[in-house]
Amino acid sequence: MANRRIPRHVGFIPDGNRRWAAERGMAKQEGYRHGIEPGLRLHDECRRLGVEEISIYCFTKDNVKRPAVQTEAFKQASIDFASAVADRGAAVLVVGDDTSTQFPAELAPFRERQGDGMKVNLLMNYGWDWDLAGLKTGELRSQPVSRMDLIVRWGGGRRLSGFLPVQSVYADIYVCDALWPDYAPEHFEDALAWFRQQDQTLGG
């Protein structure tokens, strides 16, 4: 299969917000709000390049183990980002367990995809086991999300951390050591250049 210049669906794991804040003498929870503007710039770049769909790892079921002040700040940053990216015309879908009190009521309208621009999937109160449990009653709970071609993770971690396990089966994974709030356009440019060099045979 010929290498594609632009992946159709890209997943993003924007890690390192708390470390970024701590390095600057801020409270760890302050890092989350500093991740909103980079996310909007990345969204705009994906739209400009013609990426059809992006998925962003926001708040997970495991994140509730963090101190309450951090979880609340993380959820608020996710709400603010969802609102801002919807205002940019994105077709937003929020995927996650909305039966839990950890799911923000403000995001409930996005449990059905809203808008007709570039597809943006936000994982909110998401857990891989919650997702797969849907198969017991018929289908994957993240069923509307398509298979990813490329995953880009910031913060240096070499793991998926439960990020859409079914949709990531054939994704190429690019790791950026920079912390997420330090996002720069060249991070994504480097990821795309690397992606074009991969042998994307899908097992064939």
Helix content: 25-40%
Helical stretch tally = 6
Which percent band covers the strand fraction?
A: 15-25%
Strand order of the largest sheet: 3-4-2-1-5-6
Mean pLDDT: 95
The low-confidence runs, each spanning 5 or more residues with pLDDT under 50, are none
Distance between the termini: 9 Å
Taken in chain order, the helices and strands follow as EHHHEHEEHEEH
Shape: globular
Q: Can you count the beta strands?
A: 6
Cα gyration radius (Å): 16 Å
Question: How is this structure best described in words?
Answer:
By secondary structure, the chain is α/β, with parallel strands linked by helices. The chain has six helices and six strands, in the order E-H-H-H-E-H-E-E-H-E-E-H. The N and C termini lie close together (about 10 Å).
